[in-house]
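User:
Can I borrow your eye for a moment on a structure tokenisation matter? Would you put together a sequence-and-structure record for a protein of your own picking? Please set it down just below, with no commentary around it:
AI:
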Amino acid sequence: MVTRLQQVVKGAALNFRRTPAEISAAAARLTAWEKQVHDKVAAQTQPTFANTIAPLARLENTNGGEAALISFLQNVSTDKQVRDASSEAEKALALSRMTSQMRSDVYGAVKKVLDDTHGLKELAPEDRALAESMARQYRRSGLGLSADQRAKLEHTRKRLIELGIEFSRNTNEADGVELFTRAELAGLPDSYFCERATETVDGVEKFVVTTKYPDLVPVMQMAKSEATRRRMLLAEETRCPENIRLLQEAVALRLDAARQLGYKTHAEFVLEENMAKTPNSVLEFEKDLRQRLDVLADSEITEIEQLKRADMKAANEMYSGLYNWDFRYYSNLVKERKHKVNEERVKQYFSVEPVTRGILDIYQDILKLRFDKVENPPVWHPDVTMYEVWEADNSAFLGHIYLDLFPRQGKYGHACVNPIQNGSENSDGSRTYPVAAILANFPKPTSTTPALLTHDDVITLLHEMGHLLHHICIQTKWAHFGLDSVQHDFIECPSQLFENWGWEPSVLQKFAVHYKTGERIPKELVAQLVAAKNEGAGLFNLRQVFFGMFDMAIHNTEDASVDVEATYKALREQITRFSGGSGPGCGAATFGHMMGGYDAGYYGYLWAKSFSADMYATRFIKDGITNAQTGMDYRREILCPGGSIDASVGLERFLGRAPSSAAFLESIGVGNSQ
């Protein structure tokens, strides 16, 4: 790993230090410029690609990065005023973008370019794809409707923008907090209590436990007390109850918007653009997978039930069933007892800095890249690290990446990648370089230990790094075809592909070293981890099926009053086999995907996994998991095109054939014969 000084950064570093006033001014400037460009396009008397499509695309090239940056700050800033200003700016930008997309005069100019079939054929492939994509976006925005109908649709979509921003703000800002005695947290390791805040209640010292991931997940996995686990799950599912109302309203408005555009359901509208194409394809996929997984889950449930019955008997309590707060605890217990996997021991070998370096090395070797750490980087928080990304042979600078890995107040609460600036070609032939950030919530370092990751955290980091490098490796002329334009049931594929390296013993032993002794992770510990990989795969993947089927239940319906909360609770119990109990709260309130762009698209996680498993087995296992030529084929066919081609085209080029689900089914422990 090479370290470079900040002043030799080739691509200009972005400025994340913005005041609320500067954020508001930037949003006003961007929306004004957007209107000017659209006014000029609308005034064209003889529309062509050069005077109509290209100016609109150049607007995305030049404005997109600044717009994304000021919207991004709501997820990371420690200043609530900045976060609020960022949320308001995002709303203003989204409303402006929506208004622009619904301008019939601009659409008229774009349509004339599309109607010139001869001129269209003369365009370069990416330019032609751009023109077709823009025309399709205008049609899907309602430009085929009457003026009155467009006004109604515009009102609906404005409200949807407001709902999405409010839902996200609630999720980021509201943390559940519970107080527990040490006895109530029996089962948690000593490290969990190191530097943990305490409060004294009626003379009794209690530990402060929040719903942030580093607090919540260990309790759900290791706390022996069922009452403790139940309280924590309840705290998570009741921390922003107002979000149920917001999601309920959004579901009805999405259906209304789809109907206005001539679709029966919102899912029908969304899936038209995806690889799946129709709701029936998704439902058949989920149904088939559920049936296969149910076979695995039958035996897994029996095993878990036996453990809980034994615990209840030992405590002289009645067994009343399996509940949602039991899932992680007993799944972890099975893994420990059957495979001797002790997560606390495993963590000692996964200190965040060597793990990060090791993961970057994987991507360097396979994709022929180089990551140079920037010293004293201009970032939004001291925890953040910044890297330049270069071609391994130093022939080209590719972009900047940021890693923001630890939780804090007001920060986005899960793990994701935020594309901040798309790569694009400037009119003078130079490039605007892509920029993106990983936001995660891993355990923080303490005064006595570095930040230590579970193996699940390592897989998460590999996954998010896959998104990050997908964004950086896109090499398109137009920012229009950046990461967010990739079909949503394929976009998880590149990130899921690289999870596989986290299960390869030869890879783990390169970077997993004990944080105290420097000893490499013992081979027998790696073998235990690998042996436990598919332990509980039936129940784990049924949870993914549940999320996908809930998504379809509320978005592939013609019933505008479908009950979001009741549907969530009923399907969770039916599919996952665990009861929610009779208490308040609903996990849909913090199911951010439903308001963050994955509506009618959550199935894509498992759908895309079918492709990633196929690619790994067919090319990387066959050619060698560190084969750089295979990695470069992957870069060329899968990553570089972004959304400029249909994902199935690049997939078949890389595989040399149509994709198959056989490797995926085998990877999760079910076969074609089941």
